[in-house]
Structures are given as C-alpha cells and as structure tokens.
C-alpha cells in the first residue's frame, strides 16, 4: 500500500504579476493606473527640475552663449554681439548691452527662440527665466519616454520603469536646469521617434488589412500617401535639426528605418517583390512625406534671420544679388547658404583643446563628465556636474550590448528600433575623433539607453511562462536594482543642482580621478 505524497502548496505569484492580475480583473483600476503612473512620474520629474531652478544665479558653462544670444535674438530677430564683459553686464542688470551687429552663432535658431521666450516671460534679470524653457522640455521628455515605452510594449510597468529612470537620471536633470540646447534637442528627437512608432503601427495595420483582402500572392503591394504620423515625425525631427545639426543624422537614420520596416512588413504580407516595392514605390512616397516637411520646419526656424538685416552674413537690403548660375535664388537664401558653409567649416574644424573635452569613444566608459559649475566658500562647495546616474549609465551601456546580441538571436523589432536610436545619436560622433566634443552630448542618448536597460530588466525577470519562483526572484532582483538606482540619485542630487555641501561630501562623488 503506497502513501500518496501531499500536494505541493500553490505557488504565490510574483509581486508584479499579482498587481497585473488585479488590473486585469478590474479594468477601471487599469485605466486609473494608465493615467496615474505617468502623472506621478512626470510630477516627480518636474519637482527635481524646477526646484530652486534659478540657482546658481550665475552664467553657467556655455550659458555664456545661449542666454545672451537668446535674449538678443528675441529682441532683434538675430543674435547680436556683446561687449567683452557681457556676462558681468548681463548679471548686473544691463541686459540690453548687446550691439546691433550680428554675432557668428554656430547653431540654428529654434532652441534659442524657446530660451528667449522663457527670458521674456520672467524678465532677463531672472535666472529662472533663463532656464525655464529647458526645464519644461526636460520634464516633457520624461512623459515622452513613458509614451514611447507604452507604445513599444503596451505595458504600464515597463513604461513606468523607463520613464522613472529618466526622471531621476542626473544628466537629464542637469540639462533640464541649465540653458543649453541639448535638452531641447532630446525632446524633439524623442517626439519624432514616438511619431514614427505610431506611423509604423498604423502602417502595419493597413498592410495587414490588404493582405487579408488579397490572400493571393501579389508581386506589388499598395502605396500609401495618407500617413499623417510620418508627416508629424518629419516636422519633429526637422525641429530637432533646427535646434542642433545632430538632428540631421536622426533624420537620415530613421528615414532608412522607415523603408526597412516597410519592406519587412510587405514580405510578411505576401508581396512577391517586397524589396523593390518598399524601396522604389513606397520609399519615394515616404521620402516626400518625411524629408520636405523637415526641411520646411528647419527653414522656418530661420525666419527672424531672413527678415532682418544686420545679422551675421546678412548684408543690407541694398546689396546686389550674386551673379552666375544661382543668381535666380533670392538674396536672403544666398546669404543663408553662405552662413551655413561658415557654420559647417567651424564644426568640422573645431579642435580647440578644452579641459573637459571627451571624444565619443570615452562616452560609454563615462571617463570625463563636464563640470558645469563649481564654487567653494566657507559654507562649502557648490557643484553642477553633467554626470548621469552611474548605475543607470553603465548598466544601460551593458544593456545596449545585450540587446544587440539578443536581436541577432531573435530579430525582435523592438530591440532593433531602440538600437537604431542609439546608432543615430552616437555613431556619427565617432567620425570626428579629433573634434572638441563633450560628454553631456549624450543626454539625447539617455532615453534610448534607459529603454535598452528596461528591456534587459524585463528579460532578467523572465517570460510569462517562466516558473513563478523564477519570476519572483527576478522581480525582487529588479526591484532591488531600482531601489539602488534611486538611492544613488538621492546621493548625487546635491552635485547635480549646486546645493551647498561639505567639501568631503563632494569628494565622495569623484569615483574616478577623471571625474574631478
């Protein structure tokens, strides 16, 4: 006679699985969390960015260019020259000490327009006004990360983790509290990326509907002109290019991504000549919808420069047009082309040594962050460093490599999409190893690094079919990691925001000798 073994006790679901079950059983609660999670995360991000925004009341790092140039552009329509002691005059209240002669400025006008609007709103003597626009864009970027992640996966948890990482990341915070262009650039790049995801979803549904109504194999598929999200993406990335030329590499890279994803979708739809169908029929249409609107937005950003006189490379109204092949082009556009050739020459020839320069190969290792501000007094040290949360950055770089390997194994389109964003914003900088560039340029990369890290954390948890104990241990490990990330951000926040701290406390943050 055998004695039956007692049944094993039911295994308790993993903590996040229990939460998901409750949302599934109560759809109203699910809808509530779909609004509550991004609202809370965006609110926290706003607190971290807007708190004591006017401190330090000093021209911090390259604010020496963007604050004064944005204000003169707002007043004149173009950036003007300032006296040699322009910083001291501006800080002392003489905010209209600029001249009428145009200054040679090496970035397009759109970012300065937004900074100038903030200055006009609060007054040029308000350091809050100098940084208000970048704080708005930095906070909105956190919400955009949530929307992008939710569009990629449909998961509230996934989107909450990805946007939460950005909310508390140091580089994202610092570039939301200093009047530089890179935080505004990040917003428009990510906005265009989100619009492309929405276009892809709609485009795939239409191709799937075509395949369902045409079950027979066809050589050629439909050509769609009605793609409003693609138009919107072109406008957003055109705006990014109108902030900094870094947006141009994004425009080119994601233009290729649009054609490639369409080609694969046509293959799945049973279209016989799918490569040529995507490249030679739908591809030119996508180009017409994507690129010209970007060019128009970019050109429109120069309106103030085009309609005024006295700005750099913009002669007076009485100047004669150029003769020869391009004589039919309006004089203003000829001047603008000349200005762009000067800007290009500056960028490719910029090799001036700087104590905080960091070539792109160093960025993954986080070897040389930028000290934006440092002041020591009897009360202690005030510092603003562009260093990201080290755990987020280093784990995120490892996650990018992990995603690359996983994509080679699974061909998961989400991984490819995130990696495309990383490539668009990182690889072009490797082509200029001798140019003077800085680590804080990676702020535009941080959203994609955070998405890669969130995907890696999800892989660490395991799939829905994994053993409950495996998922539980994985979820507890991920929660522990996220708690550690939050604690590191709390530790670093004072030296991201210029809070007065003891000198020894500041020294504790110099984990590498090159971080000083």
Concise synopsis of the structure shown:
This protein has 516 residues and is mostly helical.
Q: How are the elements arranged and paired?
A:
Elements: H1 15-25, H2 27-50, H3 63-76, H4 86-91, H5 110-122, H6 127-153, H7 156-167, H8 170-174, H9 182-213, H10 228-241, H11 246-268, H12 274-300, H13 303-306, H14 331-348, E1 371-377, E2 380-385, H15 390-410, H16 413-430, H17 446-461, H18 468-497, H19 503-507
Antiparallel strand pairs: 1-2
List keywords for this structure.
62% helix; two-stranded antiparallel ribbon; 516 residues
Question: In order across it, which strands form the biggest sheet?
Answer: 1-2
Question: Spans with pLDDT under 50 lasting ≥5 residues?
Answer: none
N→C terminal distance: 77 Å
Task: Classify the secondary structure makeup into a structural class.
Answer: mainly alpha
Mean pLDDT: 90
Q: What percentage of the residues does DSSP assign to strands (E)?
A: under 5%
Apparent shape: globular
Helix content: 55-70%
- Largest sheet entry: 2 strands, antiparallel
Count, helices = 19
Radius of gyration: 26 Å
Count of strand segments: 2
Oligomerization category of the chains in this entry: single chain
């Amino acid at each position: 006679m055998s004695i039956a073994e007692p049944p094993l006790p039911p295994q308790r679901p993993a903590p996040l699985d229990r939460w998901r079950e409750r949302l599934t059983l109560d759809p109203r609660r699910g809808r509530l969390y779909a609004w509550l999670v991004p609202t809370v995360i965006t609110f926290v991000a706003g607190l971290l960015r807007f708190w004591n925004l006017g401190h330090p009341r000093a021209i911090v790092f390259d604010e020496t260019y963007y604050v004064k140039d944005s204000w003169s552009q707002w007043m004149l329509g173009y950036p003007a020259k300032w006296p040699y002691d322009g910083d001291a005059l501006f800080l002392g209240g003489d905010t209209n000490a600029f001249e009428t002669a145009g200054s040679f400025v090496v970035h397009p006008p759109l970012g300065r327009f937004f900074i100038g609007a903030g200055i006009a709103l609060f007054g040029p003597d308000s350091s809050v006004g100098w940084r208000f626009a970048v704080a708005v864009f930095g906070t909105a970027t956190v919400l955009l990360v949530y929307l992008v992640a939710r569009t990629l996966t449909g998961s509230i948890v996934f989107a909450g983790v990805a946007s939460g990482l950005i909310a508390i990341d140091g580089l994202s915070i610092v570039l939301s509290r200093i009047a530089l262009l890179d935080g505004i650039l990040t917003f428009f790049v990510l906005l265009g990326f989100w619009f492309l995801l929405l276009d892809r979803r709609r485009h795939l549904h239409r191709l799937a509907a075509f395949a369902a109504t045409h079950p027979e194999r066809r050589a050629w598929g439909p050509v769609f002109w009605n793609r409003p999200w693609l138009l919107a993406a072109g406008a957003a990335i055109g705006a990014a290019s109108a902030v900094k030329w870094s947006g141009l590499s994004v425009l080119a890279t994601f233009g290729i991504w649009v054609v490639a994803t369409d080609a694969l979708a046509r293959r799945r739809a049973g279209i016989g000549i799918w490569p040529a169908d995507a490249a030679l029929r739908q591809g030119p249409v996508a180009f017409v919808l994507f690129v010209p609107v970007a060019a128009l937005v970019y050109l429109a950003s120069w309106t103030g420069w085009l309609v005024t006189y006295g700005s750099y490379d913009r002669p007076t109204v009485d100047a004669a047009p150029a003769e020869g092949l391009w004589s039919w082009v309006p004089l203003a556009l000829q001047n603008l082309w000349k200005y762009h050739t000067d800007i290009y020459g500056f960028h490719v020839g910029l090799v001036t040594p700087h104590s905080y320069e960091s070539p792109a190969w160093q960025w993954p290792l986080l070897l040389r962050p930028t000290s934006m501000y440092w002041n020591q007094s009897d009360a202690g040290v005030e510092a603003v460093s562009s260093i990201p949360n080290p755990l987020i950055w280093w784990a995120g770089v490892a996650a990018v490599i992990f995603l690359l390997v996983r994509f080679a194994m699974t061909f998961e389109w989400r991984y490819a999409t995130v990696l495309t964003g990383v490539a668009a914003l990182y690889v072009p900088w490797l082509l200029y190893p001798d140019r003077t560039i800085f680590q804080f340029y990676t702020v535009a990369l941080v959203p994609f690094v955070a998405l890669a890290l969130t995907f890696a954390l999800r892989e660490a948890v395991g799939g829905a079919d994994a053993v409950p104990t495996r998922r539980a241990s994985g979820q507890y490990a991920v929660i522990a990691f996220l708690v550690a990330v939050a604690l590191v951000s709390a530790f670093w926040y004072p030296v991201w925001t210029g809070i007065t701290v003891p000198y020894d406390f500041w020294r504790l943050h110099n984990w590498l000798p090159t971080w000083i």
